[in-house]
Specification:
Arc Repressor Mutant, subunit A; 2 domains; 165 residues; Rna Polymerase Sigma Factor, Chain: A; 9 helices; mainly alpha; globular
Length: 165
């Protein structure tokens, strides 16, 4: 794979890789570092990438594995996601709505951060990134049934917070 082909097939995935890294690491600077590391890894194996059927799934799987290694090494959980919060705050018409959205997002982010790693990854890939089950299966190495079970459990845990009150 030459530089031009690498730019076309791999570099276009930068935003998805960066978002996944950010959701898993919870820190913008670390997510940027992880994104660069993923691209370096992909560049070093660029000649082997021609046999990869789904470049997005392959790149996101490398991203996931790299981020999980970082999390395990530093024993850290997911933190705030300013990008989503800002996006939703911009949609609110008045300061009161913005405050409600910010508070709700804070609670939801804490709930997602408290989920087990598998559920956190699945809910991030499905509900935040909008990936299909087959793509998530390729990234995580799980079968689609296990993904659906983990997604259901994650959603149920988050939903239970709001139904208890």
């Amino acid at each position: 794979m030459d530089l031009k082909q690498f730019e076309i097939e791999v570099l276009l995935l930068k935003d998805k890789i960066a978002r996944l890294a950010f959701y898993l690491l919870g820190n913008n600077e670390e997510a940027e570092d992880a994104t660069q590391e993923v691209f370096l890894k992909l560049w070093h194996i660029k000649d082997e990438l021609e046999v990869v059927d789904n470049m997005q799934a392959f790149a996101l799987r490398i991203t996931r594995n790299l981020c999980l290694d970082k999390i395990r090494a530093q024993n850290r959980r997911l933190q705030k996601n300013e990008a989503i919060e800002e996006s939703l705050k911009e949609r609110a018409d008045n300061p009161h709505e913005q405050t409600e959205i910010r508070d709700l997002l804070s609670v939801i982010k804490k709930q997602i951060a408290a989920l087990p790693e598998t559920q956190r990854t699945v809910i991030t890939l499905r509900d935040i990134e909008g990936l299909e089950f087959d793509e998530i299966a390729e990234i995580t190495g799980m079968n689609e049934n296990a993904i659906k079970v983990n997604l259901s459990r994650a959603r149920k845990k988050i939903r239970s917070l709001f139904t208890e009150k």
